Structure formats: C-alpha cells, structure tokens
Amino acid sequence: FIPPPNSPFCSEEEEEEDDNNKISALTTSTTTKTTHHQKKQEEEKQKRYKIARESLNIYAPLAQRLGLFKLQKELQSLSFQILYKRQYKIASNLLYSKVVTLYQP
C-alpha cells in the first residue's frame, strides 16, 4: 500500500519528494514547449524570407511586364520590408519626414 501525497499516512520526506517531482515535470514540460515554439518561429521566419525573395525576384518583375504597376510596388514594398527591415525603417522615416515638410504651411 502506497499512501497518496498529502495524506496523514505520508511522511514529510515523501511529500517533499512528490513536490520536487511535480516541479521537475513542470519545468521539463515548459522547457520543451518553449524550445518547440522557438523552433516553429524560426521556421516561419525562414518561410517568410523565402516568399519575400520569390516575390521580389520573380513576381514583382512579372507584374511590371504585365503592366500591373500597383501590384509590383506592393510586392516590392512588402518584400523589402521583410528582407531589409532596418533599411526599410530608415527609408520610410526619411520619406515620411520629407512628406511632412512638404505639406507644412
């Protein structure tokens, strides 16, 4: 007969060991889930980069040749935003500041 934890028949050492086992299981589970989540995020990031490269190198030029200039610009803008995040931020801030100064009275 093995008494359940927290029963009057269970010693303090057994309760402590049971608590330690629960903490260990929780820690292992959390670590496993975190690692899986990080791996999944990295895979999604690589997939976004691949799609952005294809859009920039294949679909944007194709849209231009077909005369779909609005689609071309959107594909280029979105691809640039994903592939060159820092440069995109600098360029968009510079463009925004120029537009603001043009429209100030």
Automatic annotation (TrEMBL):
Residues 1-47 are annotated as: Disordered. SUPFAM superfamilies: HD-domain/PDEase-like (SSF109604). This is Uncharacterized protein.
